[in-house]
Amino acid sequence: MAGLDPTRDPLAEVEAEIEGCRLCPRLVAWREQVAADRRRAFADQAYWARPVPGFGDPAARLVVVGLAPAAHGGNRTGRMFTGDRSGDWLYGALHRAGYASQPTSVARDDGLLLTDAFVTAAVRCAPPDNRPTTAERDTCLRYLARELELLGSARVYVALGAFALQALSALLGLRPRPRFAHLAEVDLPGGRTLLASYHPSQRNTFTGMLTVEMFDAVFARARALGA
Q1: Helix count (H) and strand count (E) of the chain?
Q2: For the whole prediction, is pTM greater than 0.85?
Q3: Domains of the chain, earliest start first
């Protein structure tokens, strides 16, 4: 990886590059506006308001890919799926499957540790209406590509939602692109597997589209596949 300091952790180098990114003007403006117009519940907190890097075990066998940080979740706390209800679902499931040291994640310094798992996203800035544009996704995928390159022990990639599945399919060069379905699997070279799941968004969890049992089945399958 040209231009990186070989004396430093390569993932730390990518993390620093992500945190300093300002490539998408619409996303930069939105993440900073959200930080200025805080929710009343977080009025006394300083928002992160920067791109959010991935988080977890550099030797991870499981890589979980979401859509983007939540405006008042990751954009506030500075860690993926931290400080919002989607994160409660994700880290709760990872804890039950033995990947996370605790079932909740509220702040970057809350003591959460991941073992054999790495959590990241296709887009690193909170987007308006939680909808990045195709151009924003394509601009941001360079960072996910770098992370996946460095996470060489990965055996299973879990895509949370159709957006993440499309992003991973593009990076992995899958043709034709797989259709999204909960627990759908795609065999990859080297004995790896791409596994799809409904995203633990409130729209899915409040309506019963995704249940605790369905979500736990995803990570049980990941274990069975060697993650």
Answers
A1: 8, 6
A2: yes
A3: 10-224 (3.40.470.10)
